Amino acid sequence: MKAIRRFTVRTVVPAQISALTKLATNLRWSWHVPTRALFESLNPELWEKSRRDPLALLAALSREQFQELAADPGVVARVDAAQESLETYLSEPRWYQGLGAGAPECIAYFSPEFGITEVLPQYSGGLGILAGDHLKSASDLGVPLIGVGLLYQAGYFKQSLSKDAWQQESYPLLDPDALPLTLLREDDGTPAQVTLPLPGGRVLRAHIWRADVGRVPMLLLDSNVAGNDDAARGVTDRLYGGGGEHRLTQELLLGMGGVKALRVHARLTGTAAPEVFHTNEGHAGFLGIERIRELMDASVTPEPLSWGEALAAGRASTVFTTHTPVPAGIDRFPRGMVEHIFDGGLAPGVPVGPILELGAENYDGGDPGVFNMAVMGLRLAQRANGVAKLHGVVSRGMFSGLWPGFDVADVPITSVTNGVHVPTWVDPDLAALARERFGAEVLDGPDWSKVYEVSDADVWAMRRRLRSALVDDARLRLRASWKKRGAADAQLAWTDSVLDPDVLTIGFARRVPTYKRLTLMLRDPARLKALLLHPEHPIQIIIAGKSHPADDAGKKMIQDLVQFTDDPEVRHRIIFLPNYDIAMARTLFPGCDVWLNNPLRPLEACGTSGMKAAINGSLNLSVMDGWWDEMYDGENGWAIPTANTGAGDDERDDIEAAALYELLETQVAPRFYGEVVAAAAGAAGPSQPHSGGLPAHWISMIKHTLADLGPKVSANRMVAEYVERLYRPAAESGRAARAANHASVRELAAWIDRVRPAWPAVHVEHVESHGLSDEPQIGESVLVRAHVNLGPLAPEDVSVSVVYGTAGDSDELLDTRVLELGSAEETGPGRYQFSADLLIDRSGNFGYGIKVLPRHAALANPAELALITTG
Ligand SMILES: *Cc1c(COP(=O)(O)O)cnc(C)c1O
């Protein structure tokens, strides 16, 4: 029989241990090992049955069991201690509180997905995990951040395999009442609500759920509420579900609804309004439109701003992070679809034409019929960044069409390299070793440099424990997967002995878009087989990853791979584990000796799984892409060479796969086994470094990785960089914009209105140089004079600079520097002469050119208006 009605009965926890409810709802437990240990100790068996979910555990405990626990003074004392630890964590001053005045009071962080714990499956991959790690590190650092996202009824799909290895998706529905969430309510108890007007008089309503990520609140909008029509209810049905209008409506709810939710939250809690708005990828970009709407609405802003003024004001305090150089990763909607929905009154008072222009691909190669979310993101944010140094370079090139005439290097997109939340991703065993050997504070900061004091034997024993734990977990998962594929228990005895806790273990797990090349390792199956079955130094490989449900090419790759792993000859050495998620990841990263990454360079914006492996002492074997391009140093792993030079796709894959096999065979495996084998055979000569039969070189690479990469890949480093380089400047710009009733943006917008139409008249008429000898030498200086016609503009409106450097073969300037020319003298109507002494500071071919840019104190970057004149 089916239930006609269902509801969730919340557990009543006895008063003596009632703090358990808060401990279970504040997601700090997901990275705080002692709190997890407390829950486990309440009832280890139920803990496993509840999939290590504290709320599920509380729901599963019976009244009698609760009474027993409450009567146990030991339990009560431990609950009290955990509660005190949480309260201290929530209230004590942390890093941010030492920054002094001027740091933003509140920062809103928008993301379509948040990967915080497997208990809240609201993520699909790297973008979401990164967002989760961002919130957690913000909490640890005391940064007053607030997350904004959507609550998907089914989250992302669960993956299993059919008998013939085809990916199967299922979408189990989540019950928000059983999740660590609280519904935001008005004072009268009714659920707080945001609404968006849709075309045809429809209304999209959403409730707001709040999760607590340590100190950081996270607001999730849920459209599955009474009063919505079916389509509106379905807006938050699943993550990256439908395409087209469904996706557009999701993003409108996330961006515009998200701003409204923040206003409701601030009103109900009496907390500060965000001073900075950060959008994690373009999906939440419509937040800028809602902020413009507020500024143009007399009922919100008593002396409302014009479109241009509101745009300038919104931009000042907005940060946009682009995450992908893969075009398919960027949302593009039909322009007409966006027009239709805004024409329907979504942003009353805001002109629709300019909104459409924000997303227009009006540059070489752009599609006039398209509304591009990344392009809008860049136009709505005064500050933008990519997520690794190389990705910064790639993004500047990719979006350079928006800045015609500028050198690619001057495109105003910087980079902040991603990081990972160390307490979440360090294995508890490794954390315990660190605590015992060099103090508990290690979990508060990623200082692993003391690992050099730990003996090689202890490090190696730890690595074996982690590898063994992975092997155990993998066997269980493999067996479960085979049962789903239709095998009977009697056929599965072999799964109990797959993998070997003493064999070099290589991991590969990530989403399965084509560019990540899941199947590169299959390029030469015979060669792979030989590596797996090598008599002296075999390898074993554990693979996982979900393909996007609509991506048949990805599913085919999974199928090819799984069919290879099904071969009885190799199935004990290579396995595919379905349903990659945070829970699997936490055993997988620490258990692998080597983390493999072979994307098509430069399509991996950053990649974070290798970082999570590194903080557990796994070594990376990766194409020089993303973070590895800037952090590989020769002793922390291996670089797979890239065959970029005009080779066709097939040829390139062949070359790179061959390089991968070669590295595994001649470098990685021998180093892992070499010294052990030699020592065991008594053949270790004095020239061979070893310490008691241990692979000394390998272990030194582990220590180096922990000590050196640890701090660099930490999300604390990342969040601190965002604070210093982006949030704080954005808050300052935002304050300047708001001051004196928005006086400065009113002035700025008027100035832009004057400068933009006048710009075509600006040109460099001629350039002279004086004082250069016949054979110029380093140290000589030359007087450079530029005659510039400014049309109707004044010299204060512009900056005129000489750009100088080494002149290349076709006169392009390399390795350039910039010197601003000053002392403008009027030489005729609209004509000015600018000059400066230029010091010749290098030998060889010296060259220079002149560039003229608009200048205004409120611009964060001289390229901001995308106006330039050169000569
Ligand atoms: C870290 C992580 C990812 C992202 O890994 P990339 O290397 O960035 O592709 C995806 N899924 C899970 C479960 C992760 O933990």
From TrEMBL:
Signal peptide extent: none
Protein name per its UniProtKB record: Starch phosphorylase
DUF3417 domain: residues covered: 13-120
Top-rank EC class of the record's enzyme: transferase
Keywords per UniProt: Allosteric enzyme, Glycosyltransferase, Transferase
UniProt xrefs under InterPro entries: Agluc_phsphrylas, Glyco_trans_35, Glycogen/Maltodextrin_Phosph, Glycogen_phosphorylase_DUF3417
Species of the source: Arthrobacter stackebrandtii
Catalytic activity reported: [(1->4)-alpha-D-glucosyl](n) + phosphate = [(1->4)-alpha-D-glucosyl](n-1) + alpha-D-glucose 1-phosphate
EC number(s) given by UniProt: 2.4.1.1
Keyword presence, Transferase: yes
Similarity comment: Belongs to the glycogen phosphorylase family.
GO molecular function: 1,4-alpha-oligoglucan phosphorylase activity
